[in-house]
Amino acid sequence: MTWLLIALGGAGGSVLRYGVGRMAVAYLGPATVMGTFTVNVTGSFALGLFMGLAMERTIISVNLRSLVAIGFLGGYTTFSTFTFESLRLVEDGELFRAAISVLGNVVLGLAVAYLGILLGRAVS
Fold this sequence. Notes:
Layout (H helix, E strand, L loop, with lengths): L1 H27 L5 H23 L5 H15 L2 H13 L3 H29 L1
């Protein structure tokens, strides 16, 4: 059952990730990394929030944790795309944009994950 829940969550997260990427291209143009940035930051926050809640509330089942944390948010976040896009910026000589993208994804991702954990604990 856990495998099925992870697969279902992953499918939903992947579809949402695609939609966010398409919206970024539609509004900001095809050369943007903002879709990936948005997904990584919001996904980091959502995982931090969910796990903050899950750590404080034992009523969240293992199945729900698997569905949301591993499946949905695992399908939604995009580390592999982030690394590929960062390398493409470096190859294209866009070193400043690459550095901003890397620092923004990592630093802001860590910060919002921590904020999510704190909020999840506070709500519990």
